[in-house]
Automatic annotation (TrEMBL), chains A, B:
Transmembrane segments: none annotated. It comes from Noviherbaspirillum album. Its EC number is 5.1.1.1. Gene3D superfamilies: Alanine racemase, D-serine dehydratase-like domain. This is Alanine racemase. GO terms for molecular function: alanine racemase activity. Belongs to the DSD1 family. The keyword Heme does not apply. InterPro entries: Ala_racemase_N, D-amino_acid_metab_enzyme, D-ser_dehydrat-like_dom, D-ser_dehydrat-like_sf, PLP-binding_barrel. Residues 260-366 form the D-serine dehydratase-like domain. Keywords: Isomerase, Lyase.
Length: 381, 381
């Protein structure tokens, strides 16, 4: 199908459309933030899972990225990227794949947060092939993973890493995922400060104890886009900023007009009695993520735009079955004559990472008079 | 990776495990129901998206299936299936793909519910290649799609279909999706009766008006597994019964022990202070579907079993980020010493259709002493 010249009016539905100009602007905004704060930008490609997006996100940067699956690691290695942090807690079962890439010359940092996992890694019969840089994960208040910056575990883990041939302590990593629930800019900035301070404190303690700690890595999109000073931090790892989404707009991190990603869908039915349009983008095509609903009403599974990308007042995907989306209007009744069966709509997603994940490729939009271009991506694990 | 002999202890995580014996028992149960009711079984393969599962589900049946995406249509055609109903409202843009398979000898039924869509199809410049059988969708109370069985639209649509060369009215189709919210067996049976009666009434009205109506198609797993008589119905189209899931168990349609599908995950961290285990199966690996939560507490994103598949009292996936699952225990505190980092768990999903969709293949379990076998599936659209 890649040989056909599709437009948003003819591309098979559902498809994910990327607005290239918005994507470039979003990448520039984060690059400027990193430059202004004097830190490296190691974009998290778990959002886009795409080499073409990685090229834009790393343009003018040092070239390292962050990933969250072995599938992403394989895909980006095949696309020439040689510096990756696998930012999900490591397990011994994943080491053969990672070491395979290290043996081929890649630098792959792994992440852990327990002495137990250091012991599990050390106990592997195969030993280590090459030297594996390790980041200790720090809990900066999100209470997902990580050890306390001020606790005894941090130094215990560092000591054990130093005792395992093949492991090299590279530094600390934290992620303020709880910034996605910050109710206002003040709360978001407080979380950003806590994220920075936790990482810097942990790094300082490691250095005092005699460990080298070259990497001090923090980041989420909401915290990265505050204006706080980042003294002591060496890199940020935001991800969703490349696309943005309704959740980020609800947080005030971007405007809805910055959102570079949408799902194009076809109207497959009108149920005038029930008051909805049916579209061929449902729970798989949009995901069941409803995160923007934490902050505003009538978002449902996404906000509805016309084919040119203009928001349609009050129209949202109110319910979603596997392949059926239900479009309702919170600003009165739907103008059914405007949206006949066979017409098309574009849906802005709640959470871009969740929505784009299952798609096999992107359809990249430059302007209404140019055909869509296909960009590759990976899926699965 | 398919050459390696994996077990549930060594397969990469997250992976989807299918229990072949449970799958066979589930298929036999539905086959017996269809035989007992004297109707054909046209299983909906939107759940499994797999040729090997289709072979079990159609074993002893007439061989037709139901699909919900063009990707499924392509995949099952390539795997030799020649009788498919594409059970999502058609749009003109999908006709070239469908007609391509019809030209190659397949019977592909399409579904619509408006005179407007008949007109859209008739207006296509390309005309029709071959004869396309059409089912008119009936609303049996779920108010998703479909026309009323007793209304004037039904006959109007039939008349218009009869006037379009290339379209052939084949009958009626309905789906009682609202059975997924039936609070008890009585409510479920009432919905099953309404589903049957709507389809039979609509078919009768079409025949009275002079239209042939060979197909009277109904079905959802919850309604199919009531014991009501199905006089006047010609086929049922249940899907999720092949795997079952926590939502079906919550409805009383199956027991948790019948669930043939689970996600195997590795413990990647223990956050003792916060009271959870972290696993490497998160919102993408499990989906964000929480449907069983409509009926019972402490299900979250899935119930947790040991590696042999035995439910662990009170343990459930309480929260899910993109690649992180948070396992908590509603029956006291987690026994952290029992689940060290690197150990494995299996998660029963809320809604099997949503959970398995993004996986590239199945890992099929026969017994603990035999290696897993890989079965193919399709993904995307």
């Amino acid at each position: 199908m890649k040989q056909e010249a599709f437009s948003v009016s003819t591309v098979p539905t559902p498809s994910v459309i990327l607005d290239r100009q918005k994507l470039i602007a979003n990448c520039r905004r984060m690059a400027a933030r990193a430059a202004g704060a004097g830190v490296k930008l190691r974009p998290h490609l778990k959002t886009a899972k795409s080499a073409e997006v990685a090229a834009l996100a790393t343009s003018g940067q040092f070239g390292g990225i962050t990933v969250s699956t072995l599938a992403e690691l394989r895909y980006f290695f095949e696309h020439g990227i040689r510096d990756m942090t696998y930012a999900v807690g490591i397990t011994p079962g994943k080491m053969p794949v990672i070491e395979g890439f290290i043996e081929q010359g890649a630098v792959i940092r792994i992440v852990l947060d327990s002495a137990g996992m250091v012991d599990e890694l050390a106990a592997r019969e195969s030993g280590f092939k090459g030297r594996v840089p390790v980041l200790i994960e720090i809990d900066c208040g999100g209470h997902r993973a990580g050890v306390a910056a001020e606790g005894v575990e941090l130094l215990d883990i560092a000591r054990r890493i130093a005792g395992v041939p093949g492991l090299v302590l590279d530094g600390v990593l934290t992620h303020a995922g709880h910034s996605y629930h910050a109710a206002d800019a003040g709360a978001r900035e407080a979380i950003a400060v806590a994220e920075r301070d936790a990482a810097v404190l942990a790094a300082g303690r490691l250095r005092e104890a005699g460990h080298a700690c070259p990497t001090v890595s923090i980041g989420s999109t909401p915290t990265a886009l505050t204006g706080i000073a980042l003294d002591g931090v060496t890199e940020i790892r935001p991800g969703v900023y490349v696309f943005f989404d309704l959740a980020q707009a609800a947080l005030g991190v971007c405007s809805p007009d910055d959102i570079a990603v949408s799902v194009v869908a076809t109207v497959i039915g009108q149920h005038r009695a029930a008051g909805h349009l049916l579209i061929d983008a449902g729970a798989l095509a949009l995901s069941k993520d409803t995160s923007a609903g934490e902050f505003r009403q009538h978002v449902g599974y996404g906000l509805v735009c016309d084919l040119e990308g203009r928001l349609l007042d009050g129209m949202h995907v109110a319910d979603a079955h596997q392949e059926h989306g239900f479009v309702r209007c919170s600003a009165g009744t739907i103008d059914f004559d405007r949206f006949p069966v066979g017409s098309r709509l574009r849906i802005l997603p709640n959470h871009a990472c969740m929505t784009v994940a299952p798609y096999p490729e992107y359809q990249v939009f430059e302007s209404m008079d140019r055909p869509l271009v296909q960009w590759s991506k990976t899926t699965g694990w």
